[in-house]
């Protein structure tokens, strides 16, 4: 009887350790807003900051969102897509699920606290954000990411527009985003 109890405890401890090892180590929490009115209805962001945050999230999306040469290719990444035109280029971009607002925004730079968030077809329960990082749902309307992911995008640095991706470039990367693999501890 005691042996079976210790085996069960060992099995439960191993399973919990394995599940923990597969999760991202989130050190930053925030909320996801789709619209300014959703932001107004929350108690976490002052009303005067809602419109600038959502506008900045849209600007970041326009300048950094992945671009695909066809709607089917964009939709294969697990998200709704919109037709976009910039100069003489035509492409499809994922539609953001919303804009992740993190941290205390008092006295900060708005762009340091907001990121567009997209669905990720490869990781159930996780979403992809500008800067190459994942965002996970923590429950209770809260989302988690890492400070490293938030800092990966510097709005003060002028960047070239993302390249329009073809089926070949998407296949070589393994899907949506800039990471083609997963490793523990990074």
From TrEMBL:
InterPro entries on file: Biofilm_formation_YgiB
Key words, A-Z: Signal
Organism: Phaeobacter inhibens
Residues in the signal sequence: 1-20
Stated name of the protein: Integral membrane protein
Pfam assignment, any one: DUF1190
